[in-house]
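Write out the bound-state structure for magnesium ion.
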Amino acid sequence: MNNITKTFGSKVVFRNLNIEIEQGKFITIVGKSGIGKSTLLGIIGSFEKVSDGKIIFEDREIKKPDKNRIMIFQSFDQLMPWKTVRENIEFPLKHLDIEGLDIENILIELDLKDVENHYPYQLSGGMKQRVAIGRSIITKPRMLLMDEPFGSLDVGTRYNLQRLLMHVWDAYKMTVVFVTHDVNEAVVLGNDIWILNENEILQIANPIMKPRDISDVNFQIFVRELVQKIK
Ligand SMILES: Nc1ncnc2c1ncn2[C@@H]1O[C@H](COP(=O)(O)OP(=O)(O)OP(=O)(O)O)[C@@H](O)[C@H]1O
Ligand SMILES: [Mg+2]
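---
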């Protein structure tokens, strides 16, 4: 992002922001409510227009959304209610008529094989988010943009989905930018943790080795340090 300024009317969300995201990284973003996390994801995905500045993706300036940058939201209502699990996941491939990942592998890896013929109303929230992840990765996007995707899940389901997402990231090598309110989650998942404050982004490398254990004392010390930096 080169010199990005983003305003909504008189409200300035970003002024002359410069950031770079390295290919293949898993970046987590934390920051207080209303600071601009969703706006930042929207700008990266080209869903939000910038007021000034340029977005460069793999050496090209980009202005419109495309299949290389896919967004996953918190809401469980991202699926098409009239299509089954399998049809929802396959939809982007059929729609774009491109070659993607193997649907059978995705169903197995996301533990959805048993419910492949179910409709969204028959699924739990965690299952729906797994379908949303499957649908997002089937076209082999270069980048996944995730806006608090596990925000309204119970602790156990959330933990499982974190593990699953790490596995998917490892297996398919896409870049992930993941917004969360949960600093523990940010540390479990991120190579780098970005703290969004007013007019600054702190980029902090994650010093905690994998597998990251939330009950480990160093983990908790690091989380405390991060929390103190959120203004
Ligand atoms: N479409 C819009 N029109 C006007 N103002 C907007 C619009 N979208 C966002 N804003 C404002 O921009 C700022 C950043 O909003 P954003 O949604 O990016 O925050 P956030 O960090 O994602 O917050 P949260 O953690 O609550 O999701 C807020 O002040 C918000 O009111
Ligand atoms: Mg938001």
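---
The chain has two domains: 2-68+141-229, 79-140.
The pocket of magnesium ion (ligand 2) is lined by residues 37-38, 147 (CB under 6 Å).
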